[in-house]
Design a protein that fits this description.
313 residues; alpha+beta; 16-stranded antiparallel β-sheet; 16 strands; elongated
Length: 313
């Protein structure tokens, strides 16, 4: 049979052990506790808005001295970004700590179509056997293919500030490189389309102002990213070699040079998730009911034993 001392020490040991566990689980973690996690962009992400391609178009020969002239092509986009992002996130104590976006590629598939055009005076009048001549209306179409944003170098957000239960907000200047393809097309009503491409867009460094949120719980964490509406629309330089549209070999050529791609009235909503839970979950219940009851019983027995000993003395 266990002695009175053993019976007394057993619940005390359980209580002490559970108290230590509770303290370990509920103690405030160090703010330096961060983790580098891979976030996958969810298929609910979307970007919509207006796209514009600015450039210059020239024609040879130019009898009317109307070229070169500005070329402005506009259109719209509605596409779903995809890809992954690696970020160093403060899982233990997000408030007051930043997120560092270390690497990643966000792809915007089939970004959109931009259309521009004008009027050209060709160096000959309409003649039998020639599909064009004299004053001619033309259009230039730019089909923007997959456009990729590669994070480089890494960038860090502002300190996170709490905006709700297990949710924090941030702002940042996202640094990266844009690249992709564009397929230009020259359209004249009486001539077959002259199609070029896809033509590569050389990698170009950009900086985009963004805002976002960081949130989480026991099932994982989430990062959302959008463009900062308080600044001017994002404009990205396009590095594309001169495009040559040969309308009639040896007679008429159009040359187009692209300068910038801009995204206006944009609604960018990127959601990326990771299954690693947010730290700081409530401590589990220890189930001390039986131990406390036993301790109370032993205490009463000890008091009776002491009183009996005193009366016998």
């Amino acid at each position: 049979m266990p002695t009175l001392r053993q019976l007394a020490l057993s619940p005390l040991a359980s209580i002490a052990g559970c108290a230590a566990l509770a303290l370990a689980l509920t103690a405030t973690p160090s703010s330096s506790q961060a983790a580098s996690l891979l976030y996958r962009i969810a298929n609910t992400s979307v970007v919509t808005g207006s796209v514009a391609v600015d450039g210059v178009i020239d024609m040879e020969p130019d009898l009317a001295d109307a070229f070169p002239t500005s070329l402005i092509a506009t259109g719209s986009t509605n596409t779903r970004p995809r890809g992954t992002i690696r970020a160093d996130v403060p899982l233990a104590d997000p408030t007051g700590n930043p997120i560092t976006f270390e690497s990643g590629t966000i792809t915007f598939p089939a970004l959109g179509r931009a259309i521009g055009g004008g009027i050209a005076t060709l160096p000959f009048p309409p003649l039998p056997g020639l599909p064009v001549g004299g004053t001619t209306v033309f259009a230039v179409v730019f089909d923007l293919g997959d456009l990729s944003f590669v994070i480089e170098p890494p960038f860090t957000t502002t300190a996170l500030f709490r905006t709700g239960e297990n949710e924090w907000s941030f702002a940042a200047l996202a640094t990266g490189t844009i690249s992709g393809t564009v397929s230009p097309e020259l359209l004249i009503p009486t001539v077959d389309p002259v199609v070029l491409g896809p033509v590569p867009i050389e990698p170009t460094a950009v900086t985009l102002p963004i805002v976002g949120t960081f949130s989480g719980g026991p099932t994982g964490t989430r990062i959302t990213i959008g463009l900062d509406d308080s600044v001017e629309p994002a404009t990205m330089d396009l590095v594309v070699e001169s495009l040559e549209f040969v309308l009639l070999p040896g007679l008429v050529e159009f040359h187009a040079t692209l300068d910038t791609l801009s995204l206006a009235d944009a609604d960018l909503s990127i959601e990326a998730t990771n299954s690693t839970p947010l730290s700081g979950s409530p401590a589990p219940a220890c189930g001390l009911g039986a131990e406390l009851a036993m301790l109370g019983l032993l205490t009463r027995r000890f008091e009776r034993a002491v009183r009996g000993s005193v009366s016998r003395g």
